């Protein structure tokens, strides 16, 4: 397997060169934010800091954190470091409550962003010879435009179909012989199922790579799509606050990690409770700082994503650090009867049970006074039996497997095939009905 | 001699049975009998149909989780004691009836683990077993 690079010089630079570049850029970025954004200046002054206090990369720990709340408090332009006339584009992420998070880009930022996306796409073997079918919606979401411009920069042909209209997508794959699909993983699975129902032979299809995003992509879901659609399923790491896709991506040699674009983002791993930096290799919350962002510089942004990072060399030849795929977030942790549970644990448990699909819903309630966790599990058609006894035995088997993983005994409800709603955006898989005591 | 029964896995929610029946009606399939009991959250509704294979296909195509099982079908003379007589024959042979339900007319469907053995037991008695072919009328 040979590696495919978009920017080999920076992607394979020595660790020393990367560290030196990061320090130089960090100093500039900190000064840029301090000089141009009153919010940053005020936070620095509260701590008696000036940009001159940043002398080493470790000094970043002296700076205050930022998070979603800061972006909400300063909505919409409070963190903007350039005149609005220079801002060329706004993107936002859907807020579940209240105002969205919005960030802007000037030309410089858009150029860097598409560079990072081009690298990330090249990392999974996509080249200018590929034809890319876009099934993300364009619009405020960073995924559509981000991947669009990145793939264009790499030189790919893009079919900007947008989201929805599955039959038209299937026709485009067939007629335009597209080779790369950009979509949410659940939409890819939906497309796969609709294709199968229409007699599409995925083995013979031109599609070869899936670039997934927009919602968590579990290993089980990836495996299922890989087996059924016969494509290589990849995902990447990014968040709107830091530009969207392109912060990191997996390479074909290290599928369980994402290479972070370290010349553009400085990472830290912290203890989510104390905020203290943790040594390399520890699991903790990922904190990222932009290193060369002009419109919306973000310093020490708390991602709430739990991961571990390694700077060990990768077989692909890239020297940039690798973060383990994010399987849990500090803020989607559920506490059920005092036990910490991550929805991803449910996904992991289900992915190894025969006869169930990767789709599920979790409902929490405390009607009886105690926390109760109900997991709705979708059956595969072959798991259906005429015998109620057998179905009940199967249900108990699912309960056992979940209990082993979660250390809490859930109530399991078996749902008929396709009975759980597919979400094409962020999955709404958890419903907490518990009355707050 | 056994009759094909179509079982549909159905969540116990309003309208689910109706949607199943709509699918059958649209395909012109006649329901001769059915069993829908309060089996908790995941219900299994069982049907004896005049065209079971077609029923299975249209239900699956409509997205329902349907499966096929065999049941024995017996026509009883419409007079007192007949049901007791038939079930008595099965009981005397030491066979457990897993479930049973009545169809239209005086037909009953009986599910047991070993269909063939039970059929043999019934054949030795003056009991009218009904075949799939007899279900079309
Ligand atoms: Zn690599």
Overall mean confidence score, pLDDT of chain A: 92
**In total, how many beta strands of chain B?**
7
Return residue spans of chain B where pLDDT drops below 50 for at least 5 consecutive residues. none
Based on Cα principal axes, name the global outline of chain A.
globular
- Biggest protein-protein interface? A-B, 16 and 19 residues
Distance between the termini of chain A: 57 Å
First-last Cα distance of chain B = 17 Å
What oligomeric state best describes the polypeptide chains here?
Answer: heterodimer
Strand content of chain A: 15-25%
- The CATH class of the largest domain in chain A is identified as Alpha Beta
Largest sheet of chain A: 9 strands, mixed
Named at the architecture level, the CATH assignment of the largest domain in chain A is 3-Layer(aba) Sandwich
Level-1 CATH class name of the largest domain in chain B: Alpha Beta
> In what order do the strands lie side by side in the largest sheet of chain A?
4-3-5-6-7-8-9-14-13
Number of separate domains of chain B: 2
Q: What CATH architecture of the largest domain in chain B do you see?
A: 2-Layer Sandwich
Count of DSSP helices of chain A?
Answer: 11
- The overall pLDDT average of chain B reads 89
